[in-house]
Every structure is written in C-alpha cells, then in structure tokens.
Amino acid sequence: MSFALRTAWASLHGRPGRAALTAAGIAAAGLVLGVALTVAYALSTGFDRAADRAELPTVVARFDDEDPSTVDAAVRDLPNLAAASYRYERTNVRLAAGGHVLDQGVLEVVRGGRRGYAIVAGRDVRTAAGAPLEVVVERGLATQWGLRVGDRLRVGRLGFAPIVGISVAPDNVAYPLAKTARIMVGEGALLRRFGAPPGQHFAVNTALLWARDPSRSDVLVSAARQSSFGLRQLRFLTRSGIEALVGQAAGIVVALLVAFGIVATGLAGVLLGAGAQSEVQRALDRIGLQRALGVAPGAVVAVHALRGALVAAPAAGVGLTLGALAGRAPTGRVLASLNELPPSAGRLVALLALVWAGAVALVAGASALPAWRAARRPPAELLRGGDVAGPRRGGRAGSTRGGLAALGARLVLARRLRFAAVVAVLGAAASVVLLLLALASLLQALRDDPATLGKRYQLTTRLPESSTRAVEAIPGVQAAAVRYSADAVSAFSLGSPLKVIAYSSGDHTRFEAPPLASGRRARGQGEAEVGLGLADALGLRPGSTLVIQPLGPREVRFRVVGIVRALQDEGRVAYVDPDRLRDAGVALDGPMVLRLRPGASRARIAAGLDALGARADAVAGATGDSGAFLDVLAGLLRIVAATVALVCLHALVSALALTARERRGAVATLRAAGADARALRRLLAGAALVVVVPAVVVAIVLETALLSPLVAHLAAGYADLPLAATTGQVAAVAGGLLLLSWLAAGWTGHRLVREPVVAGLREDA
Amino acid sequence: MKRPGSVPTTAGAGALGNPTPGTDPTTRRELLLAAATAATAAVLLPGCGGSATPTPGSTLHHTLVDPDGDTLLRTGPGLPLRDRTDLSPRAKTGATLVTLAQLSDLHVRDAQSPGRVAFLDRLGPRLGSAFRWHETLTAQTVAAAVDAVNAARPDAVLVTGDLADSAQRNELAWALTLLRGGTVRTDSGRRGYQGVQAASIPDPLYYRPAVDAPRHPRLLARAVEPVRSAGLRAPFHPVLGNHDILVAGEIAPTAATRAAATGDRLLVTPAPALLEQLRGLQPTRAQVDELLRTGLPGEAITVAPDPDRTQLDAADVVGQLRGRGGGAGARLDYGADAGDRVRVIVLDLVRRDAGSGGLVTAATIAALRRELAAAGHRYILVAVHQPLAQTAGGDAIHDLLDADPRVVAVLAGHTHRNAIAPRRSPVGGYWLITTASIVDWPQQWRALRLVETAGGGIALETWMVDHTGRPNDEDSLAGIARDLAFLDPQGDRPAHAAGPPTARNVRLFLPPRAPRAPKTPGTPRALPPPTAPERLGAGDAVAAA
Description:
The complex is a heterodimer of chains A (765) and B (545).
Chain A: H1 2-14, H2 16-54, E1 59-66, H3 68-75, E2 81-97, E3 100-110, E4 118-122, E5 135-138, H4 139-145, E6 152-155, E7 159-168, E8 181-186, H5 187-193, E9 204-211, H6 217-226, E10 235-238, H7 239-281, H8 284-292, H9 297-337, H10 345-375, H11 379-383, H12 403-413, H13 416-448, E11 459-461, H14 468-472, E12 477-490, E13 493-503, E14 516-519, E15 527-531, H15 532-538, E16 545-549, E17 556-564, E18 573-576, H16 578-583, E19 592-596, H17 602-611, E20 617-618, H18 627-662, H19 664-672, H20 677-716, H21 727-753, H22 757-764
Chain B: H1 28-44, E1 62-65, E2 74-77, E3 82-84, E4 93-103, H2 138-152, E5 156-159, H3 169-180, E6 182-184, H4 219-223, E7 227-229, E8 236-238, H5 242-245, H6 255-261, E9 265-270, H7 272-279, H8 285-294, E10 298-302, H9 314-322, E11 334-338, E12 342-346, E13 358-359, H10 362-374, E14 379-383, E15 391-392, H11 394-402, E16 407-412, E17 419-423, E18 430-434, E19 444-453, E20 457-466, H12 477-487, E21 506-510
C-alpha cells in the first residue's frame, strides 16, 4: 500500500497541471451535486420540518363564530384525540408599522393549549387574564417589513402593541406570497382591553385538533364531522390537505426544482465517473511501464484508485461546499416564502459528508476499473499507446485529406471508445442545459400564459351571469360565461382538498379544456371531469362517484366520466355543472371570463365592458405574480447552468489535451513542417467539432426522450408539462458548445506551442 | 383464586368458572390432584374468589383497553376483585349460594325501520342513542354475549330490560330468539340493507361504514345475514324495559307511530325547521302524533314496508316475556327461584304512557309485598330496569326492602353505566347495582356470585365479562360492533359508562344475618300522584360522568 500511495502522490506532484485540471472537473461536478442536493433536500423536507417544529395540528376545523364551550362539547370526546385548542380568527385587520400598511391582516386570538406555530425569535404571547397587549407576527411579515422583536405594530383599532415574537406556521404560505399576514394576540389581553368581566371568553371559529395516532386521523375527522351538527360553514383541513394546498401555491415550482435536483445529481455522478475514467486513459503508457517493470496489476489498480481519491477528496469537498453555499441562500428564500424551515447546518453537513464520501468512492472506483482492465493487457501494447477498449486501429489516422481540421477529427475518431465517452459526457451536460432552458421557459409561461394551464379565455371581468349575452355582443368576444370556483374536500377523504370549477354555460370546454387522459367530456348535470391529481388521490376512474363536501355538511355527488391532465391546483380539480352545486346550497361566485376571437382588439373589448360598467382584467398564469419566487429560481438555475458550462469546457479541454498528448509526434511533425499556432488551433478545433456535433444530437435525444419526461413526471405526473426544448434553445446550446470548443482548442493549442518541437519528435522516433 | 384461609367451595353447579362440585378426595392420588388443581388456580386466577377455569371474556383475567388513545382496543391486564366494606367488614368467603349473569339493555334494533328517529342523533349526546355507529350489529352482539354467558355456566340469567329498541314486534321476536336459541335475520323490508348508513346516503352526520373511517366495506351486507344464537342454557328471567313497550323508549305506540313504522318513508335528513322545533320541545304524545300526521319534513328515502315493524302493545310484550317468568296481570312483576337459597324478584317499573324514567304503581307495591312474603328463608335479589333513584315512587320500594334482612341487592340497567352503591338500613343494608348495556360500550355482562362468609355473613362477588367478539378483527362482527361502540363520540365511551373499578369487579360484603323474613315488614310511603313524564328524550343516553 505504501508503494501505491507513494506512486499516486508522486504522480500528482509530477503533473500538477493535469491534477489541477482533473480536480477542477471534479469540483465542478461536486458543485452541481452540492447545489442539487441542497435544493432537493431542503425543499422536499421543508414542510415536514416546519410542521414538526410548529406542532402543526392533525386537523384544522373552521366554522362560523361559536361559543367555545359549545365547540368543546363537540370536540372533547372525539376518538383518537390527543389535544385540542381553539382560536378566534378575524380577517381584514389593518396592520401598520414603519411606514408599511396592510389592510389584509389576520388577527388570531389564541387561548391556552397548543399553538400550531413555532416561535423562531422572541417568545410567545401570554394568554392569561389581564396579560398586557402584545403580538407575535408571522415571519413573512417581519421579513418584508423589517420588523424585529421589540418593535411596535399597530393592530387595527387596538392601537400599538409590542412585538414579542416571530412565528412560523406552515399551514399557509408566507406573506407576501399569501396576500394576508397573520399576527397572534392572547385572549386575556383582548378581554382586558375590552373590559370584559372575569370568566368571559371570545367566540371561537377555529379548532385545532391533534390526533394521538396521526395515521388514524381519518377516524378523528370522521367522528368530528358526525358530531358537528350546529356548527355552520364547517370545513376541515388535515395536515396532508394543508400540504397539498401549500403545494398548490408553489408546488409546481418546488417540484420542478426537486426533480431537477435529482436529475442533476445523476448527471454529476456520470461526470465524476467519466472524468476519472478519462484520467486513467491518459496514463496508459505509465501503466504499461509499471507492468513492464513487474508491478502487480493489483498495485497498479491501487495506485490509480488512490490517485483518483486523492484528487477527488479535496476537489469534491470544495465543490460540494461551494454548491451547498450557493444553493442555500436562494433555497432559504424559497422556504421562507413557503413558511417552511431550512434544515439545520448539522444535518446538511452530515448529508454532504455522506455524499462527499460517495463521490470520492465513485471517483476511486471509476479510476480503478479501467486501470484494472488496462493492467491485464500486455505491457507492450500499452507502451505503444493502446487504448483501454481495444487495439488501436491504424491506417487512416495519418491521412491529411480534408485539411488540418479533418485531420484533428480523424485523430479523435481513432479512439472510438474515448470518443463515445466524451460525446456522452458532453451530451449529458448539454442536455441538462437544454432542460434548464426549457424549465425557464415553462416557468415564464406558467406565470404569464394562461394557455399553459389549458385556459382558452384571455380576459376576465366582474359581471353577473345575466350580462352574458351583452358581453358576447361586444365585437371580438367569441364567448363569455361566469366561471364559478369553490373549495371543497372529498366527503369520503376529508383530508383531500379540491377545487370545483363550473361554468354558467354548463360547457367548460369552450373556456378551458385540459387534455383528456381517459374517458370523455362531461355533458350531463351529474357528470364530472376530474384532474389526474385528484383521480390519483381518491382512486377515481371513469364510472366512479365523486362525492364532495363544500362548506357545510351536505354532500354533492357526481359521476366521473373523464380524467383530464389539468395543471391547476396540482390536478386536484373537478369540472362540473353548476346546477347540482346550487341545489346543494353551495354559494357560487366567480368572474365572468371572455374568450376572444383571433386578432380581436382588447382595447375595443375593454371599452365595451366599460360601457357595461365593468373592467377587463388580463388572465395570469398559474404561479401568479410571485416574481420574487421566480427570481430565486432563476438564480439557482443560473448557478447550475454556469457550472454545467464549466463541466463542458473541462470535458472538451481534457479530450483535446489527451488527443494532443497521444499524437505528440504527429503534432511535432506538423509544427516542424511549418504549422503555426493558428494551424494547430484548426487541428484542435476539428477534433473538438467532431465531438460537439454528435454531443448536440445526444443532448437533444436525452432531453426529449429522457430528462424532460422524467422531470415532468417527477414534478407533476398529473399533467402534461411542456418541457421539450425549442429549436431556438437547441441552437443556443449548440452555439454555446461551439464557443466552448473554440475556447478549448485555443487553450490547448496555446499549451502545445509552448512545448519544444524536438521533444515531440524525439518521442515519435 | 382461593384467598388465604378461604372456605372450600361446596355449592353452585360449577357456575361462572367454579370447580365442578364433587365428593371429597378419598385416595392419595385424588388428594394430590386436587391440591395441584388448587395450586394452579391460585396462580392463574388471582382475586377470583375460587374460580378454577378462566371464564372466556372475564375481566378478572383480561380487560380490553386503549392504552395509547389511538382508539384501537387491545388486551390489557385483568382487574382483580376489590373488597368493598361499606356495609360490613371484610370476612373469609365460603360456599357459593348461587351464580347469576346479568345482561342488560340489549336494544336489538331494526336498523331499517322508518319508525326510527335516527335523525335526532345530531342534536347532541343526550339523544345519541337515537343512532349508533354499530346499530346494524345488535343481534351479533347479543349472540356473542349469549356465548360468553353459556361458557360461564351460571345458575340463572337476569335480563334487566330493553331487549328491543323501539317496541317493534320484529325486534322483540329477534331478541327472544337470540336468548332462547335459533337463527335471526335482522333484515326487515326487502332483502338487503336500506337505511341511513348506506353509502348512497349523502348525509355525513351518519357513520356510513363503506365510505367513512374506519371503513368496513361490506359490513351492512354482512350485518343482515342470518345470525345463529345458541340460546341461554340457564333459565333466564326477563325484566320489562321502557324500550320494550315505548317507541324509542319514550312514547307508547299510537296509530300514527305504527303507521310510520310500517310505512315506506324513512326520514334521513330532517329539515332545519323540524330540528329547531324539536330542539327545545318536550313533545307530548299528542304533539308527536300531530308531527307524524303532518309528515316530518326533510329528505327521506323509500324503503320496503314491513308489517312486522309494527309496535306492540304493552300487554303483548308482557305476555311474551311472561312466557319465561311468572305472575299475572298487566305488569311484569314476578318472583323466581335461583337455586334453593336465593329468590329473585322482578319488578316492572316502566311507564305505560310516555317517559323513560321509572314509575312505581300500587300494583307493583302489592306484587313486591306478595313476593317478599313468599320468599321464605332465602336471600333476595331484586331485578328492575330503571334504578330506583330514577323511579317515581322508588322510595316506597326502598321502604319495603330496607326492612327486610334477606335483601342482598337491587340489580338495574337502563342507565347503560356500571355503578354500585351501598344502601344502608336498620337491618344491615343491601347493594344498589346498575349494570352497563350490551348494546353500547363496554358491551359487557355482569357475573354475580353470592357466597357465604365466615361468621354467618354473605358477600356478593361481581365482575364484568366481555362477549366473545374479537377486537380489530374484520371477521368478527360482534368485535366490530364493540370497536365502533368504543369510537362513537356520542356513545358510552366518553360517558365513562364502564364506570370506576369499584363499580365493576368487586366483592360486596354484607353483615351477618339470617335470611329470615322481618317480623315487622316495611311500610311503603304513599306513592306520588301520577304526573306527566318530566321530559321526553330518545332513549337511555348516559349523561356525562
């Protein structure tokens, strides 16, 4: 082992430049890995982490204001109930501090018992009778307004109150991603402020229930519903339902990031392995020499495995650390906007250490395998420069037909296995860049283009159903209808929230028609088309019965006739006829939507609506106006894209340097015959080009056939995500690779001309 | 277990796990065998007062508990007998005088009857018994209780009322078949379940086993399949309960209630106005008739009518129950022997007009006097449905019993709750025992063993016994019934109907006294004038403890 270590160490010292190049490649791959892991791990576990820390209740029940003793009577004997606490929640409270004003504050009057939120700074409010007025504000508001513990917040007509704590509760996204901001006040302080006599309590409208056995929370909810008579406008939300709802706010973005992280992790592994393998290929002559001197194959393998590990250990460490640091800040911002918590530094370090060990082992293994294969071959063949994959094929390499560029191409093509490996690495890296570009386009489309969601209407306005004909009479309007939308849950699975969508015209397909996955379009009053996300969650298929429970105790039933690939609300949607909802007493409300004729003048339509006393609003996409959210995403994507570009450059430089080294004699002969630096660059550019062109083809095939469907499936298996790269994106990637080729050829050429010609000629002789 | 120094058991025909009586061991081998048996019993049956064979379901050996509160019942440790010395100090126990089983409040229900008022359940726990999560499984539960009783081999069985749930002819027939032995199919109307628990019912205020948690997909279909009951092997003595003759345990049947029960309209979701009307109302029979005549507003389903759902007159019910008992007249007051040392006196305290509370009539007082006089030198157990404390005129009964040293206990049901209290009197006192129901949690029957104690006293040993249904077993319908009874948030779990340990497995000591009629019998105070029932409810829901 000491021989192996000594030799490996000497090898690194003898060629510091090459070692540095190898380390750079590994560091780049490590950086991709670090970013991807940080993003994927932090985002995929953020909700559970925050929910555990905040002791998020198993079930949240909301209802109209009720006496707390009445609610407690219905709650306290529920089966599987570990604890319950009650709140009064008041919306549209004006909040003001430091020049900021928000009219959509939510005042939560908390009583004793568990809270369901985590204090991340300061302390909680006191709830005892006679306690002073003090508030806890949610972290989103504190961050947005720059509030700290000790500052004062004006709360509606209650006046100013000191901020004693900052909280996080993952039962909703954070302000400003949510339009409302929550603050908590103790009941005792409010009663004191209002001069209430002792023993008096606020009404409550929210019950938080914790199950003893969360896996049997369905029993708790079922019993709670059965005992709920008298509570008006009752609706339940389970912890899984909360997760789904939060997911609907930003789920697609998070899911895309996580899916991308998984794919990028795979890519980084490929790059690490390929880099290590290429490094061994460059050392075949030394392996031949060692074998000729009688070194055992096992020792040869150990030397290269150790060499790989020695290079990979610091490089992967640096790369992973940089990646984690680069990814952590933007990921933290994403988590903050979702009211979730980042992983602890200790846990992240442990994860990275594990991955670092895996990366080093991968590089060592990837170095050992080709070394083992090479060490078993005759030393003479290796000393002749034989490739690992088989005997070199001579004959055409020395031909100069087609000029220097063609000669460079032939030099690369002569090593077919290596050529294939470099093409694969470049193709994989380029496919990820293509995926990044496609992701960026998709996110932009989700934000700006309603058609991405399958919507066929372009404008909305606030007019009653009775105005439909008048609106349709406006020139340029092809069709109009009121789009009703109601939140509901599955009556048989109360933790499954869904959105019910109905059009006043009865036919939703004129205004939005997500593609059918199975079945047919809904036509009758009792029929429904459901999103694939909902169908998967509830086990629905054409012919099943969808039983929903809107606000209140009544159930409404529909026969499922079609499953659609809807992207909205993670596919948890149902398109139904409005009449049955009305029959069940559901209060329907929604905007009138307008489908425009091609080329219609929006100005004329706006004027027409204005004449009817209404205003035209353009339709936004799924992710709405969360610009900050997308900026964060863009930042992450930029980091990964830059790193992948570095990887590509590294692969090209390595390939060209290796080719040049193997052909030192030929290159020296060319130089002796008068080839200058420019000629050498042409030679190397030809070599690079012959790799880049098939790499682009591989990238397109990989992105289209593998990565795009994989990410789409991982992120949103319930919908068709348009993640295929466009022609322009392919052209941009191809151009980028050509530019990198030019850079690699220039750099390698520059190094070649610095080498004395005689050195190469001597070697050839 | 044989307690140290206890007197060897010599009487009682092997009941409730007692060793089979036999002659004294005569050979060395028999002597060793007897010693080994006694030693084994001492190890296996701690606190059992002499039982050698564990009775299936006996809570002396195992209890069903939910230790972690996740609503899944598991087998827990047994609950040994505790000595209660409220009336007399502890003493060595001896020969068994009699073994009895008390089953109470079976409430065998026709869950598909349009005569039901399941919709009242939503008004709160007070009316919770109007609908039960497990209401289609009452026959299976009774059959499982019968099996457990038979395994214990008591000398006699007291069924302390509410055999039926709503005075229907088919319900009483099913209940009596289950107790006597035979097969019942609790499927009225057409074949197959039609009722408020069907998955097609869009009212989530009912538990629908096919779609609501905890799900039991085929439960309703299985519930209406034939149920075979072995029948009680010991003689049983029925007590009349309010649910046996009053609709929903509250109102005597009328033409209107019978028409509703034998009709085809089953009200599922009452109109809000009706609920508001009923919420604060204490309806009289006339008002109920008026409500039925005008038609209860709300969403209803059509079920197949069935004439067997008609509600019986009190006389019909008393006549059918008397087939197993004695006495005469319009009320079910009678006496029966339980072994040769104990006399059971059954009293009928059920109102004939309306109201679930008890009522003592002059006829009952007369019957009690007659039975006391006929009891001779035997100990007396009095069986009633409503506890005397919840019975108008109950004090008059106490006046007679307080003076009689033969009285050991008054056994009641009705409240669906285990409770035991001492009743002190100049002649030594007796115990007032109320037993939980078979229909609701904990679905247990009460084992009773009257034993002699050293010094001429007696003790009544009593413990609860689970029926043979297996918890968390989809193949055991009676087990599912108990699981659901435990879950029901308006059932008897939250009401702590199982009672404290001192109301379950106890040894109740009584002072030494000879079972002799008093020289001066008690004089009952005047009965209160008959009044209208205080309040109509929907049965015997247990008030929160």
